[in-house]
Amino acid sequence: MIKFLLVYFACINIFAAVITVYDKQCAKARRRRIPEDFLLTVALLGGAAFEYITMKAVRHKTRHKKFMITLPVMIILQLSALLAVVSITGKSLLKLF
Q1: CA distances from 34 to 28, 29, 57, 62, 85 (A)
Q2: pLDDT (0 to 100) of residue 97
Q3: pTM of this structure
Q4: Residue 48 parent element (H or E)
Q5: Cys-Cys link to 17, which of 13, 38, 43, 50 (CB 3.0-4.6 A)?
């Protein structure tokens, strides 16, 4: 179960980073953008960490308080949930690698 969660979080975070960069490129080219609700939904599903890091790196939506407050809160909640699952199962994350 823990390996599945780690793979899931890796995949959803990579997807979040890709769509953030894509939205930034669309903004520069004045093309159709990815809706903010979709970006936040991907973050809520587990992609908050890479989405936040990517937004800071490419300077995308950094003036939007909705993202700059919500994403760090989501990161804390997601890390807490992951640590709770690890604690409940009694497994060590280090032993998985």
Answers
A1: 13, 13, 18, 16, 32
A2: 53
A3: 0.84
A4: helix 48-58
A5: 50
Give the mean model confidence (pLDDT) for residues 20-24.
Answer: 96
Average pLDDT over residues 24-45: 96
Query: In this predicted structure, what is the pLDDT of residue 83?
Result: 83
Give the residue-averaged pLDDT of 22-44. 96
DSSP 94: G
Q: State the sign of the Cα–Cα–Cα–Cα dihedral 40, 46, 48, 54.
A: negative
Residue pair 16/48 in contact by the 8 Å Cβ criterion: yes
User: Is the sign of the CA dihedral 39, 42, 43, 47 positive or negative?
Assistant: negative
CA distances from 11 to 8, 39, 44 (A): 5, 15, 14
> Coil, strand, or helix at residue 87?
helix
Residue 14 has what pLDDT? 97
CA triplet 90, 95, 97: central angle to 5 degrees?
135
